[in-house]
Design brief:
Number of domains: 3
Strand order of the largest sheet: 1-2-3-5-4
Radius of gyration: 39 Å
Distance between the termini: 75 Å
Oligomer: single chain
Largest sheet: 5 strands, mixed, barrel
Shape: elongated
Strand content: 15-25%
């Protein structure tokens, strides 16, 4: 334990805090010395299938561990509960955790139904564990067996050399250590390379959150440390949420940095950075002005989301998209709308087919009305023509009469079908 910036030594601070707390216990001790020790995890309760689930409180026991004391490994296993209630950083089997004794629910002199705060614990203190020790300094796992000599020969050398100060270099995609019921060690999980001032949260499988910044190297160093620091100045903030690393080699001990094009799913919250996203499509030919910059060329505050598939779903209310300039939709294979209700576009000008479109659409109702008038006029004329007679009076004009009758019939049929010209789904003003 180191000193804080205020100069308070943490063990002394903890000790004083616990003593102040325990001084409030009726008939309780007035002095408590918190004890810190290291324990190797041998069992962790995660669900009802664990053999200790009922013994240590059923669902209240989730996260409890049984541990082996590092100093006295032959002693009986002891129980410890998580130190943090709202942050879960559960250890694997064979990982080393810090154990600390602190007050339990008997603090006010009121035991629970069993007479103790925790089943199996009979004192006014309970042992809690703090997150796994960075034994290998690797986010994937930090397990270390109590006796490496019991492992297969292929694994013994790996662990024994580490005890001598060497770094562990696993390249066989697995380990012979029992780390849990489902956890299988992978050699291709790379830790993130940290930069000055970073706060990084890493999962065990290449998922992470980086709260970082732009990093500019000072001369004579010109190499790029990451792919988001090509512009801006050092200290410009950035947040990166990543799930699944793109670069995977068997040299899992070598750190890596995020890559929006190769990582499986990413969200970037940028301030001044230029993110080199290779967009699936950058066809902006529909634009006449306000042409967007390509995603890999824009530098400034933006949020980028990249994955194999994106789904935005609203269950009770709207999805709203708002932009100070334009909203661009770019798709390689098509652009589809499906709705069981109205599809409304309100705009000063709508161009279909091309940004250079000049031919206006016809108004359906008015066009039908004008055609109806034209047909009625022609039909009336044809009716006259169909009854004309020549001179001398009474001599029929047979050919003209027949032709006029046929045209009149055709006009009547056309008139009856005029309303079929109007779309039942598409309307304009």
């Amino acid at each position: 334990m180191g000193n804080t910036r205020s100069g308070i030594h943490l063990p002394n601070f903890t000790n004083q805090s616990v003593n102040n707390l325990m001084g409030q216990v009726p008939n309780g001790p007035t002095q408590v010395t918190p004890s810190f020790k290291a324990g190797r995890v041998k069992n962790i309760i995660l669900d009802e299938t664990n053999s200790k689930f009922k013994e240590f409180g059923e669902w209240n026991s989730i996260g409890y561990i049984e541990y082996q004391d590092i100093v006295t490994p032959n002693a009986n296993l002891a129980i410890a509960k998580p130190y943090f209630a709202n942050i879960k950083n559960l250890p694997l089997l064979e990982e080393i955790v810090w154990i600390v004794s602190l007050p339990n629910t008997t603090l006010n002199g009121i035991p629970n139904d069993t007479g103790n705060s925790t089943p199996g614990i009979t004192s006014t203190t309970t042992e809690y564990y703090i997150c796994p020790t960075a034994f290998w300094n690797h986010p994937h796992h930090n397990g270390f067996p109590s006796n490496p000599q019991t492992l297969p020969e292929s694994q013994q050398k790996d662990y024994i050399q580490t005890q001598l100060g060497n770094h562990r270099r696993v390249t066989d995609q697995s380990t012979e250590i029992n780390l849990g019921n489902t956890f299988i060690e992978r050699s291709n999980i790379h830790p993130l390379l940290p930069f000055e001032g970073d706060t990084i949260y890493e999962g065990r499988w290449g998922n992470s959150i980086r709260i970082g910044s732009t990093i500019k190297l000072k001369p004579p160093f010109n190499s790029s440390l990451n792919n988001w620091s090509s512009v801006g100045t050092s200290g410009d903030p950035i947040m990166i949420l990543r799930n699944g690393q793109g670069i995977q080699t068997d040299q899992g001990w070598i750190p890596t940095t995020e890559d929006i094009n190769n990582d499986e799913s990413s969200i970037y919250l940028a301030s001044t950075q230029k993110i080199p996203l290779k967009a699936s499509s950058t066809n902006y030919t529909s634009y006449t002005n306000y042409i967007p910059q390509k995603p890999d060329q824009y530098a400034g505050k933006q949020i980028m989301v990249n994955s194999g598939r994106l789904v935005f779903n609203s269950t009770t209310d709207h999805i709203l998209l708002s932009s100070a300039l334009t909203i661009n939709f770019n798709a390689v294979k098509g652009f589809n709308f499906d709705t069981t209700a109205n599809f409304v576009i309100q705009s000063q000008q709508i161009k279909l087919g091309s940004k250079n479109a000049t031919e206006p659409l016809l108004l359906g109702n008015q066009t039908v009305a004008l055609l109806d008038q034209l047909i009625m006029s022609l039909s009336g004329f044809m009716q006259i023509c169909s009854t004309l007679v020549s001179t001398p009076p009474g001599t029929p004009l047979a050919q003209l009469n027949i032709a006029a009758a046929q045209v009149d019939w055709s006009l009547s049929a056309l008139q009856s079908n005029l309303n079929n010209l109007k779309s039942k789904y598409n309307y304009t003003v």
